[in-house]
């Protein structure tokens, strides 16, 4: 009798992520590889397979390939790659693919990020649910039926091509010399940084790279590869100060996100980075004859972003939080660039996909093309004061949200419901957004104001209602 298999513990809205040996195993990965080919109609087509530096990634890559080739796809192994290397290969080769990574999660996790040909993401709304259901069926049946003409396997190293492509998008050869500390967190930026910013394959740039934790090690012996947590930036901040560096860059485990530290050891907000890159991308598009280039920003980036976009004669488009939404709107709008508060940055010239390295190159260019220090330059893009994301563990998020709405909704405040609730003062002096987490019992608060005192008062008043 067939046993019902449930993979829902590891299949999320945008990717697959689980604990190795528990919610993600070689057996389940093999079934997912077969289902990936079936659901996306990839028999006879190329499927790209790579993975990060986690110990389980090679085994899972092989298992996925076994399932995919059994159903007739030809697999190209890419070896150890960053997530944006997968997007590059998927875009450049117009092939579907998967990379094994759990991004910033701890060492016991691994997972899969999938894309259709052209780096189009696979989410629960665009095939991931059907892939899970087909894989569950194969696991319940106890076998993956092989097609008559099974697929082949081959290998390809794309690192040099990826580096060359990024170099073609941002010319750093003429900037002033910069001292750059890069914290790879033992993640994939340890592989990509020397290739893109160093002279491993290409001509040397006017950059002195000071490496932190470039050794690829998926057990993360130094600190978690999650730069969103301030604790994990401390080594980079110390190294920037002690080396009198111009800038610090921190990447997450799969190197699709990049965080920036100025020469004083202070973080440059992702909203400021979004505005900085947006200005560059708008001006480049305008130089190519484009009228009113579109910039995407999610609803909790600073209002400085849409203000700058309008000032530069671009058109800002606001969207929900989450990379599948951003990528979809990027494609719909033909947007040149998009940014999120979580340090994901999306580029039209990168198949609407996110890449931390390309964003870092834009920041290096913006810094190196003028003489001011980054702390001074950054202030230009960060005129307001932000709370950052404040999480409250709440059993009844709906009741807490209702209390906040009752307290703040009045004639002088507008409320919209694009993603959670966003409250905006009529005079523009402050706004805040309240969103319930999809995966945890948290209410997430993001607030911004024109001055620190207003921000402090506002934040305290909202949290008082939430945490009653």
From TrEMBL:
<dbReference type="Pfam" id="PF00408">
    <property type="entry name" value="PGM_PMM_IV"/>
</dbReference>
<dbReference type="InterPro" id="IPR005846">
    <property type="entry name" value="A-D-PHexomutase_a/b/a-III"/>
</dbReference>
<dbReference type="InterPro" id="IPR005844">
    <property type="entry name" value="A-D-PHexomutase_a/b/a-I"/>
</dbReference>
<dbReference type="Pfam" id="PF02878">
    <property type="entry name" value="PGM_PMM_I"/>
</dbReference>
<dbReference type="InterPro" id="IPR036900">
    <property type="entry name" value="A-D-PHexomutase_C_sf"/>
</dbReference>
<feature type="domain" description="Alpha-D-phosphohexomutase C-terminal">
    <location>
        <begin position="389"/>
        <end position="464"/>
    </location>
</feature>
<feature type="domain" description="Alpha-D-phosphohexomutase alpha/beta/alpha">
    <location>
        <begin position="161"/>
        <end position="265"/>
    </location>
</feature>
<keyword id="KW-0479">Metal-binding</keyword>
<dbReference type="InterPro" id="IPR005841">
    <property type="entry name" value="Alpha-D-phosphohexomutase_SF"/>
</dbReference>
<dbReference type="Pfam" id="PF02879">
    <property type="entry name" value="PGM_PMM_II"/>
</dbReference>
<keyword id="KW-0413">Isomerase</keyword>
<keyword id="KW-0460">Magnesium</keyword>
<dbReference type="InterPro" id="IPR005843">
    <property type="entry name" value="A-D-PHexomutase_C"/>
</dbReference>
<protein>
    <submittedName>
        <fullName>Phosphomannomutase</fullName>
        <ecNumber>5.4.2.8</ecNumber>
    </submittedName>
</protein>
<dbReference type="GO" id="GO:0046872">
    <property type="term" value="F:metal ion binding"/>
</dbReference>
<dbReference type="InterPro" id="IPR005845">
    <property type="entry name" value="A-D-PHexomutase_a/b/a-II"/>
</dbReference>
<feature type="domain" description="Alpha-D-phosphohexomutase alpha/beta/alpha">
    <location>
        <begin position="274"/>
        <end position="382"/>
    </location>
</feature>
<dbReference type="InterPro" id="IPR016055">
    <property type="entry name" value="A-D-PHexomutase_a/b/a-I/II/III"/>
</dbReference>
<feature type="domain" description="Alpha-D-phosphohexomutase alpha/beta/alpha">
    <location>
        <begin position="10"/>
        <end position="137"/>
    </location>
</feature>
<dbReference type="GO" id="GO:0005975">
    <property type="term" value="P:carbohydrate metabolic process"/>
</dbReference>
<dbReference type="Pfam" id="PF02880">
    <property type="entry name" value="PGM_PMM_III"/>
</dbReference>
<comment type="similarity">
    <text>Belongs to the phosphohexose mutase family.</text>
</comment>
<dbReference type="GO" id="GO:0004615">
    <property type="term" value="F:phosphomannomutase activity"/>
</dbReference>
<keyword id="KW-0597">Phosphoprotein</keyword>
């Amino acid at each position: 009798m067939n046993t019902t298999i449930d993979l829902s513990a590891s299949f999320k809205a945008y990717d697959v992520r689980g604990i190795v040996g528990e919610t993600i195993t070689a057996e389940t990965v093999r079934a997912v590889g077969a289902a990936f080919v079936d659901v996306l109609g990839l028999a006879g087509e190329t499927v790209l397979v790579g993975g990060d530096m986690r110990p389980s990634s090679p085994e899972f890559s092989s298992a996925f390939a076994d399932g995919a080739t059994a159903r007739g796809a030809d697999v190209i192994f890419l070896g150890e790659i960053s997530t944006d290397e997968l997007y590059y290969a998927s875009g450049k080769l117009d092939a579907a693919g998967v990379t094994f990574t759990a991004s910033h999660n701890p060492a016991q996790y691994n997972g899969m990020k999938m894309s259709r040909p052209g780096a189009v993401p696979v989410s629960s709304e665009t095939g991931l649910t059907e892939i899970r259901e087909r894989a569950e069926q194969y696991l319940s049946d106890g076998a993956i039926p092989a097609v008559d003409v099974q697929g082949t396997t081959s290998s390809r190293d794309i690192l040099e091509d990826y580096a060359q492509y990024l170099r073609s998008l941002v010319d750093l050869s003429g900037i002033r010399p910069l001292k750059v500390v890069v914290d790879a967190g033992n993640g994939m930026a340890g592989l990509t940084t020397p290739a893109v910013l160093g002279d491993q394959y290409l001509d040397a740039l006017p950059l002195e790279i000071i490496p932190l934790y470039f050794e690829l090690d998926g057990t993360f012996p130094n600190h978690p590869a999650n730069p969103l947590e301030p604790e994990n930036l401390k080594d980079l901040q110390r190294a920037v100060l002690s080396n009198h560096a111009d800038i610090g860059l921190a990447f997450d485990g799969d190197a699709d996100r990049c965080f920036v530290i100025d020469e004083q050891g202070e973080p440059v907000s992702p909203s400021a980075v979004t505005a900085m890159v947006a200005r560059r991308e708008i001006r480049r598009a305008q130089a190519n004859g484009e009228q009113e280039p579109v910039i995407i920003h999610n609803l909790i980036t600073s209002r400085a972003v849409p203000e700058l976009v309008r000032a530069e004669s671009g058109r800002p488009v606001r969207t929900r939080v989450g990379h599948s939404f951003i990528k979809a709107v990027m494609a719909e709008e033909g947007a040149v660039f998009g940014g999120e508060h979580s340090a994901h940055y999306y580029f039209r010239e990168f198949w609407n996909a996110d890449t931390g390295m390309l964003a870092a190159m834009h920041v290096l260019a913006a810094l190196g093309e003028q003489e001011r220090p980054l702390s001074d330059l950054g202030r230009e893009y960060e005129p307001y004061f932000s709370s950052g994301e404040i999480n409250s563990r709440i059993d009844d998020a709906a009741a807490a949200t209702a209390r906040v709405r009752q307290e703040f909704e009045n004639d002088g405040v507008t409320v919209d419901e694009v993603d959670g609730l966003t409250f905006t003062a009529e005079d523009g002096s402050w706004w805040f957004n309240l969103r319930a987490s999809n995966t945890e019992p948290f209410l997430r608060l993001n607030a911004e104001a024109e001055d620190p005192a207003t921000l402090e008062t506002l934040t305290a008043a909202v949290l008082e209602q939430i945490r009653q």
